[in-house]
Amino acid sequence: MKGALPNERVCLGSYHEIGLKGRNRTMFERRLADNLRAVLEGLATVRVERLTSRIAVHVSEPAKVDEVAQRMALVPGINTVTVAVRTARDIDSMAAMALAELGAMGEVRTFAVSAKRSNTDFPLPSQEINRILGARIREATGLGVDLTQPDVTVGVIVAQGHAYVSTKRLSGVGGLPTGVSGTLVSLLSAGIDSPVATWRMMRRGAVIVGVHFSGRPHVSGASERLVTRIAKVLERNGGIGRVYIVPFGDIQSEVALMVPPDLRIIMYRRLMMRVAQEIATVERAKAIVTGESLGQVASQTLENIAAVDEAADIPVFRPLIGNDKLEIMAEARRIGTYELSIEEAPDCCTLFMPRTPETHAKPAMVREAWDVLPHERMVADAIASLEWVDFRCPGYRPPKRWPTPSGASGSSALEARASADRASERVSNPWRT
Ligand code: ATP
Ligand code: MG
């Protein structure tokens, strides 16, 4: 309460995860508070405070309250956001505040009061608070009480030291604060699926390190820029630390010379897994994520998934494996990546593609083709040409081997090349199908 205004605007974030106890709970709350600070940085002068089972974000500029609430709702770990005014912890102050808030609203005919106490030393039980405030509001305004479908619910939270009165509540994305579940490497194309898969794992508390394979130098850097824009959208959730870009075109052309057409896609994918795994080692990530969904395209049959999985020594998570495309598209719209994902940007997947890819790869043939490839050297080449772009993510610590900024490579080089690419985009890809 130090230096706080008496009737300060506050956004209260609630969370719920069963089994949050002891040190886990403190870690969870600290992480959530840090993530909120990062996501709200620069928006308004805010102060983030941990209350019992809630996080309070004090907002200095009343005009910014709604935007603060909306940004908070996108942060994993936040279950609901209540936009409230803080007031003294007595029933008269609560009633006065409720009336002021209702007075500032548009047309309202019915209301309900919903009080909660997170500090039991307050003498009145919640039901009693509901009853008293309900009667006072009805008397003062003539509004009707409707407990099932009220036009507005007046929320009251009685906490330590203060009461909070609200008339607006937003649903948050739920899940766990990013950073409590470790780091994952996510194979991020510019398509619809992988951003959704990435988002899902981020929501389960993982810090994401993306890896994008571009077709450069045989196609332009358009897909790299698109992936960077998609990652910018995911940055609003505070859970993506970095995206690595792997120029993969030369490696693919080498594969195309050495491997029969029908097995090429599987070889590209196995190489992608190996490169991702190498990055995972440096990033201390414990698993890889992809946006595959069973049977969606030729490379996503059970046989081919198994043939690709075999190349990785760490777990590969496919959070969309049982989803229909329509469900994935709806989720992409909700998280805000859909409009970007439908933009055309050829990546490495448009390069050297066979007309009839193998859909039921035989393990023996896959291994034979793999053994022909100098795959260790190819992976080393890919790692040597890595570039990266960093994002705001409090849970992310860049590895010592590839610190920030990335010097000659990284976002500035990416940007510098972007303008050159724009000029040559239409003619640079003789292989495009
Ligand atoms: P998406 O919509 O995510 O692009 P998709 O439906 O196009 O997926 P595939 O092309 O078979 O399906 O890709 C399957 C998965 O492989 C992707 O979800 C992604 O995780 C990974 N992947 C594909 N292409 C790339 C790429 N260029 N860079 C990084 N990962 C990729
Ligand atoms: Mg794709």
Can you tag this structure with a few keywords?
alpha/beta, VC0802-like, six-stranded mixed β-sheet, 14 helices, 14 strands, 39% helix, disordered N terminus, binds adenosine-5'-triphosphate, binds magnesium ion
Question: What do these coordinates show?
Answer:
- Helix 3 packs across helix 4, helix 8 packs across helix 9 and helix 8 packs across helix 13.
- Strands 2-3-1-4-8-7-5-6 form an 8-stranded mixed sheet. It has a 6-stranded mixed sheet with strand order 13-12-9-10-11-14, sandwiched between helices.
- 39% of the residues lie in helices and 19% in strands.
- It is built from 14 helices and 14 strands.
- The protein starts with 8 loop residues before the first strand and ends in a 9-residue tail after the last helix.
- The protein has 433 residues and is an alpha/beta fold.
- The protein folds into 2 domains: 163 residues, VC0802-like, CATH 3.30.2130.30; 237 residues, HUPs (Rossmann fold), CATH 3.40.50.620.
- The protein is elongated.
- It binds adenosine-5'-triphosphate and magnesium ion.
- Adenosine-5'-triphosphate (ATP) binds next to helix 5 and strand 10.
Strands, helices and their partners?
Layout: E1 9-14, H1 22-40, E2 46-51, E3 54-59, H2 65-73, E4 80-87, H3 91-103, E5 110-117, H4 126-141, E6 144-145, E7 152-158, E8 163-171, E9 183-187, H5 193-203, E10 207-214, H6 222-235, E11 240-247, H7 249-258, H8 264-283, E12 288-289, H9 302-309, E13 316-317, H10 325-335, H11 338-341, H12 363-372, H13 375-384, E14 387-390, H14 411-424
Parallel strand pairs: 5-6, 5-7, 9-10, 9-12, 10-11, 12-13
Antiparallel strand pairs: 1-3, 1-4, 2-3, 4-8, 7-8, 11-14
This protein binds adenosine-5'-triphosphate (ATP) and magnesium ion (MG).
